Amino acid sequence: MSPKKPESESSKLDKIIAEALRNRTLRETAYRDRALRLFPHVCARCGLEFTGKRLRELTVHHKDHNHENNPPDGSNWELLCVYCHDKEHGRYSEDESHDEAESWDEEGSGSGYRPFAGLQDLLKDKK
């Protein structure tokens, strides 16, 4: 019998990733099945109804964007078609980046260079 070779780091990492993906798929399947039993098969945004094979185009959207928050009553979910779901996440990303930009400006972060600082005073002097 030959000695067992030590498992490589990349092999261990591959196993961890595969297990995490499996667990995520199981979790998503569980809350998707519950959401489809709780709610009518209608997109909460555009109102399209989904039946048969098209039911796979209906997704579960987490209202608070936390995929770990899956209350049994479904209060954090809404069913959205894939198109409205993409729009919602695009809007959320835009809002998030806009908020970050505003806080960046408010904090006074940045180079500090203001090319038009004092322009108003210069224009008043010309009059």
Per DSSP, the total helix count is 3
- Major sheet: 2 strands, antiparallel
Helix content: 40-55%
Rg, rounded, reads 25 Å
Whole-number average pLDDT?
A: 79
What does this molecule look like?
The longest helix is centred in the N-terminal third of the chain and has 30 residues, at 9-38. The radius of gyration is 25 Å and the shape is flat. It has a two-stranded antiparallel ribbon with strand order 1-2. It starts with 8 loop residues before the first helix and ends with a helix. The protein has helices at 9-38, 82-106, 119-126, and strands at residues 58-62, 77-81. It is built from 3 helices and 2 strands; from the N terminus they run H-E-E-H-H. Helix content is 50%, strand content 8%. The relative contact order is 0.09. It is mainly alpha-helical.
Compact summary:
The protein has three helices and two strands, in the order H-E-E-H-H. The protein has 127 residues and is mainly alpha-helical. Strands 1-2 form a two-stranded antiparallel ribbon.
